[in-house]
Amino acid sequence: MPISMKLKIPEIGSKQLRKGRYSEEGYFYFVTTSSFNKKNILARKDVAKIIFDTINWLEKNNYIDCYFIIIMPNHLHLVFQLFTKKTLSEVIKSLKGFTGRKIKENLKLDTPVWQDQFYDHLIRKDENLVGIMKYCLYNPVRRGLVENPLDYPYWKCKYDIKEQLQETSPDVGNTSWC
What we know:
Blueprint: E1 28-34, H1 45-60, E2 64-71, E3 75-82, H2 88-107, E4 119-123, H3 129-137, H4 139-142, E5 155-157
Antiparallel strand pairs: 1-3, 1-4, 2-3, 2-5
Helix pairs in contact: 1-2
């Protein structure tokens, strides 16, 4: 008699996606979150300022130490160290809640700004932090938005990552954390 196995695949937005989420002060995380229905509303100067200002506030208040952020048209990537007794989910909820209200007001939206869920990855000791940041930095190149990743306007890095890149650009810009 054959053994019948049923695979349970979580539905989109399901709480199953959050099972196993680990949150620990002092650890590094790679987080990706998308705009609601993946609308291209994020890669704008006014929206980027709201997001960057909020990241700066989270840093100033010792919630996180942000090493890298890139704001794509419909999602953002963050690499940060968690510095709080709050959980990873609480910090991301705070980030998305505050920025969501400000962006919604600024763009006069009648829909949410962010999708409810987010992807997170706990960065282990043996993983290459710079490699993860380089991967994110090349997102605009892969999407055809720029030829040189350093030309993309909506990113910040704590370190001078340009030395790690094969391509160079005379105008690095946007590296105020570097």
